[in-house]
Amino acid sequence: MPGLYVHIPFCRAKCGYCDFASAPGTAEEIDVFLEALTREAASYAALAGRFTTFYAGGGTPSLLSERQLEKFFRAVEKLTGPLGGLAEATFEANPESLDAGKAELLKAAGISRISMGLQASQDALLKRLGRVATSGDFLKAWGQLREAGFRNMNADLMSGLPGQSLKDFSDSLEWLLKLKPEHVSFYALEVHEGTPFSAAQVEEEPDAAADMYETGAASLKLAGLNRYEISNFSLPGRESLHNLNYWEQGDYLGLGPSAASYLDGERRANTAGTAAYVKAALAGEAIPAQYRETLSGRAKRAEKIMLGLRKTSGIELTDDIFIEFKEELGRLTAAGLVETAGRVLKIKEDRLYVSNAVFREFV
Q1: Order of all β-strands in the sheet with 153-159
Q2: Mean pLDDT by 10 residues, the chain (363 residues)
Q3: Are strands 232-234 and 252-255 parallel, antiparallel or unpaired?
Q4: Structural domains of the chain in order of their starting residue, each with its CATH number
Q5: Rounded Cα–Cα distance for residues 72 and 7 (Å)
Q6: What three-state secondary structure class fits 4?
Q7: CA distance between the termini of the chain
Q8: Which single residue of 14, 117, 154, 279 has CA 20 to 30 Å from 183?
Q9: Is the pTM of this model over 0.90?
């Protein structure tokens, strides 16, 4: 199930926690970027027709104007064909840059799934994060997407935020559940070097985030949203097919600055610099790579385990995995972190939040 990911490196303003390749951009800069993207996409013409899922991320893809969105989709469809014919086509949006016209355009373009950042329902917390939109903006945008016909929508919530209490998180989730989302993603605050939060010496709150995660997971289960991956919950049949492909070590192509690809056993990522990306693409040159590597043997099997164990369904405990990682699996089982049922290996449900302790065994 090959997937196509496209990174839009522009946003209205940089959030305090964001370490993605993104920055504010003018309409002219976005136009130039779209021309570069069109040329990069054309360089992969040999892969046209192979993709079954599509994901537009960023940055803020919804920042593009309707005219720019139309150009964007023309470039993408050279590789995917009509987006409506894919198993899934996801588009990330932020409330402040979405309106009824864009919602209708996305639906007409064949987008079948929307992912939108809420993060918290308290405007004071959103301001602290550097978010441009208020909870009222989110509510308005959500309604416009529903009116446009979208019935597969995800919302992101964050935990462990500066000044965020367990009640704040629970209230945000209760507020969101009233909107009946098909999918919810949880993200604990991580402070990365080079972000505004790092410069301001904001500290992570892992214990508080863990309490929020466990409380939230229980609430979502009661609401009928099943945890199918460490941080992701959905109604039955509304799991993210594009992301499942990542966790199942499937092939995917990434276009745009910082976008990662995994094709024919090789992992690579484009340069994170938008200027360097645009310059190379417009010159018809190969996009500079942040890294490229080919995994094989033990390293490839270890990655398969780490990715697969993110899913609550676990992985098949094949003979090669059992033999090669017998000692690691023994330690994890003795520590009460994993369990097996027949030939299925999975992280215990009550240990999912400390999954990094499992993954460290395979690094």
Answers
A1: 226-229, 232-234, 183-188, 153-159, 113-119, 88-93, 53-58, 3-8, 252-255, 260-263, 266-270, 289-294
A2: 93 76 88 98 97 96 97 98 98 97 98 97 94 96 98 97 96 98 95 81 88 96 97 98 97 98 95 97 96 92 95 94 93 96 94 93 91
A3: unpaired
A4: 3-247 (3.20.20.70), 297-362 (1.10.10)
A5: 11
A6: strand
A7: 26
A8: 14
A9: yes
